[in-house]
Amino acid sequence: MSITDWPAGERPREKLLQKGAASLSDAELLAIFLRTGVTGKSAVDLARELLIRFGSLTRLFAATEADFCETHGMGQAKYVQLQAVLEMSRRALQEELQRGDALNSPRAVRDYLQLQLGGCQQEVFLVLFLDTQHRVIASEELFHGTLSQTSVYPREVVKRALAHNAAAVILAHNHPSGVAEPSQSDQHLTTALKNALGLVDVRVLDHFVVAVGQTLSFAEKGLI
């Protein structure tokens, strides 16, 4: 059955207009983005197929062009549109962080880190550089590693902090394994970076561990 044959209150677009975007499921939101389905499948059916294949929206967002286009009905045009939407979302969140105190915008920080790191298949170490009012000056992915580990050099983090004239930083890295729990090596690294940055009067405000749908804060756990 085509979506146009559904009761008006159950159609994703109408439902969004009546109840707001938050009332829609992941598949319904994705269906609105897709706009149309393929022969024998509605846009919602196709959206569900994509979510089942990739496992989550986050992993779908991180899919390569080749993987994305392997799904029947998906092509380069849809991939480009999706990447454009994601980049606009990242930039909107970064603008929010640049306007105000990052410590007073924990949701925006988490949302930004999820979009940036949540679906990565290798470990990535990212640093948010902040000014004296804790507004984001820049966001940089400084180190990339394998699925199990990444090499992070405190000296390089200090150099980038000085280059941005940062007063503070927020550290973040992802766990491709899917578990947002800090390891002992994560805690040792945080201490090493905190000590190194402290020598140049740059504060480490937090360290986030990101996995698909999960973001753990060292500060909230009392680990920093």
What would you say this structure looks like, in words?
- Helices cover 45% and strands 16% of the residues.
- It has helices at 12-19, 26-34, 43-54, 57-61, 65-69, 76-99, 106-117, 154-163, 184-198, and strands spanning 124-130, 136-144, 168-174, 203-211, 214-217.
- The longest helix has 24 residues, at 76-99.
Mean pLDDT: 87
Q: What about the largest sheet? A: 5 strands, mixed
Q: Roughly what fraction of the amino acids lie in strands?
A: 15-25%
Unreliable segments (pLDDT under 50, ≥5 consecutive)?
A: none
Number of helices: 9
Helical residue percent band: 40-55%
Helix-strand makeup class: alpha+beta
**Number of DSSP strands?**
5
User: What would you report as the Rg, rounded to the nearest angstrom?
Assistant: 20 Å
Principal-axes geometry comes out as: elongated
The helix/strand order is HHHHHHHEEHEHEE
For the largest sheet, list the strands in their spatial order: 2-1-3-4-5
Cα-to-Cα separation, first versus last residue: 54 Å
